[in-house]
Design brief:
single chain, 637 residues, alpha+beta, Beta-Lactamase, Phosphatase 2c, domain 1, five-stranded antiparallel sheet, 12 helices
Amino acid sequence: MTAPHAPKVAGIEPTLPGPAHTAAPTTPEAPSVTPPAAAHDRLAAWLSDLSTLHELTERLARTDTLGGALDELLRAGAFLVGARRGLVTLEPPDGLGPDITVGLGLGPADLGHLETVPRRATPVGRLLDGAAGRVPSSGPPSGAPSGPVVGAPPGTATGAPPGPALGSPPGPVAGAPPGAAGGAPPGTAAGSPEGPSTGPPAAVPCELSQPDLASEPGLDPRLRQVAARLGYAASYAVPLIAAPLITEAPRSDGPPHPEGAPAETTGTRPTPPPGPTPSPGSTPPPGRTPPAAPAEEGKTGAAAGSPLPGPHRHADRTPWPAERPASPAASLPSRPLGAHPPGSRPLGAAVWFYDEPAEPSERGRRLLGMYRAYATEHVTRLIELDRRRRAEETLRAELLPARLPRVPGVRLAVRHAAGPHGGGDWYDALPLPDGALSLSVGSVTGSGPSAVGAMGRLRAALRAYAVMEGEDPVAVLSDLELLLRLTEPARSATALFAFAEPPVADPLGGPPNHRIVLAGAGHCPPLLVGEHRTEFMETTLSAPLGMLSCWEAPSVELEPAPGETLLLYSDGLLHRTGDPVDRAFARLHAAAAGASRTVREDPEALVDHVVRAMLPQGLTDETSPEDVVLLAAHFER
């Protein structure tokens, strides 16, 4: 039998379960603090863009000539904006040049067609001429395209509609007057003084985009014809200017700062709300919630700028990139595109052409803007180097004979090329009294302007000694060596001097007889080329000038037959071959001996034949530091 169940009594079998004592109480785990997924994507894009810029600028930095830098600039720009063709025009504002135009994917004929377009209608002309002076108050000039020039002041000749420049935020910047973009007064470009556009100099536009030439009103008819002929439908142009852009907004998003790191200097940190700043890990008072970062339009959650959970939820920290307000271009930390400061003068302009209606993306514009600033500085340095190089070349050319003399019975020809650094090689042909002729070649150690100056002094002294005592080549070189030791004690030089006596008529009515006296000072031996012989004249039994305390050398006499040619040359002709000296001598001998009779009878043809045989790349090779001199004296029959 079982006893009946007792009824419920107060305090017996309560409805609430007893406390569990089999498991220890647990605390909820704190959520892991990780940046939002959008921040990872943005950082990845940021690093990718930096890698692209690093690669392009590294390739540009490896260029050491102006032409190579302009080619690389066009190729990199075409890659960034997605175009196939383009051109860059240099017009330095100081007027010292060089004024050149280089094309990418455009031949000389294409560049010629583009030059037929009125300058005021071309993108290059609009960018360069618009920055040359003040901007007119009226609309665009007659025939000028009406496409917008991004960043240009409203109401200028660029035809840009009023509004902010590309890359500026849609609203006003904090602290700017109402209605002004980037802190500029209404109706003016960012960074330009207040007042109408007719007063102050115009701010230089940062770009000129023509996304569809076919539908653009007011386009110059000639520009439309040339565009159809060359097959391009859109263009994008930028000025080459190293001046910084006018910043109209804080810099865009970059990598997150660690806790306690200062914010970007170009931006403005949001002002925290009044009241005490909560410390890390503190709990807000009841009824209050911490301020959330401004959310991006159309986004929610962490990607929209909501505060992160955990101890990082305080106003004093720097938000992650994904939590910051979105900007039109948020892939790289850089100033937005705008106008350059008034008074900035562009070095030139570059324009790229599209085969179909198109325009570059915002990312391409930003990358090109940063690349262009570095490229302009690099091109500026190369322009300065090119000017110095041209000045040295002009000085060197003025120190050498402007033309070879005409001497009865002798025909002369010469080929000369200086190394990229400018060397001290020289040549000379000087008519002397009584119909004689002096020939000389030489080289001064060193390179650059100092070597060129020393070369000019030695050549001038050699001419003076040749006039006074040219019939004795050993005396001429002895006096030259003394002068070198007194005036240039730290230098040495090599020289070869030849005195050609006036031709003597043959008493039997034959061709005239010639006689030459030679002396060398450590220089390469001359080569006599004729129908029956091709041989070197021994003049190497001497030391270079300035090497010995007492210089002396023997002289050599020879009688070239009518129709033979004497070749005088510098050691650069041998060194540029890249062969050992003995093999280079053998190549020179073989090249001269293999010349046909027609070539041997013409000194111009003979020097060209020897240069082609010795230097297949020609005299314009800039990879070799050696100067080249080749002087030929042909004795007529």
